[in-house]
Amino acid sequence: MSNGKRDSGTPSGSPSMDAGAGDAGSAVDAGRGASRAGTVVKRTLQLTFDDGPEPVKSALNPILKEVEARGVIAAFFVLGEEVKTSRSAIVTIRDAGHVVGNHSWDHMEKGTSTYSDDQIYLEFEDTHAEVKKAGVTMDYWRAPRGEQIQRIQQILRSPKPPQKQLYSNGHCDWQADSKDAIGSSTAEAMLKSIERDFKDPKIPPLRLKGTRVWRLLFHVKDSTAKALTNVLNELQAQGGTFVDFSQDS
Ligand SMILES: [Zn+2]
Question: In sequence order, what DSSP letters do the residues of 25-68 get, joined into one string?
C-alpha cells in the first residue's frame, strides 16, 4: 500500500537536469521572484504521480480522468510490489497514453543509504521485470524521496556483470512538491507547497527544448484524487499551462 510512502522536498544531486544557474532572464514570464498570491505568472507545468498504481478504483481512476480532462500525458512512477498486486492498473495507465516509470520495488523505506548496490539494483530490476510482464516498458526512473540519485544512476547504468544495464540515463526529478504524501492534504495545502517550491531558488526549473518547465509531484492516493481538480484549476488560473510529460532537452 502507498500509505506511509514519502517523497519530499528537493531531489538531491540530480546529475543531468538542469537549468539554470545564471538564467535570470525572462523574469517577466517565469521568474519565481515575480510570483505572488493572485499574480498571474506564466509557467509550463508537467504532471507526475508517484507510489501507485493502487488503489485503482478510488484514486487512480479519478486522477486519470482529471489528467485526461487537461489533455496531457502525465508520468506515473510505480512501485513493483504494487504492480504485482494490481497488474491491470499498469495497463490502464499505459492504455490512457501515459508514461510509466520505475520507482523501485518497495520504496526502500529504510533509507537508500542502508541498501547495498546489489539490493538497489534488484529493487529496480524486479520492478522492471514485473511491469514488463504486463507488456509495459519503462525508459525512466525516479529515486524514492530523491535520495542518492547519482549513486542509483551509476548502479543502473553500469551494474556489475552479469547484471545488465537497466537505464542509461532516464532519471526524472521534480521541481515542485505538493507534499500530498503526508497525511490527507487539502487543495490549499498542496498549492501552498507548490508555490513555495516555485519561489525556491534552490529548485530551478528544467530547461527542455528552450522552455522552462516545472515538473509537479503528486501521489496516487485518495486525498489527492479529491483535491486535484481544484489544485490544477488554480494553477491554471495563476498562469500555468500543462504540457505532456517529456524529458527531451
Ligand atoms: Zn515515492
Answer: --HHHH-GGG--TT----EEEEEEEEEES--IIIIIHHHHHHHH
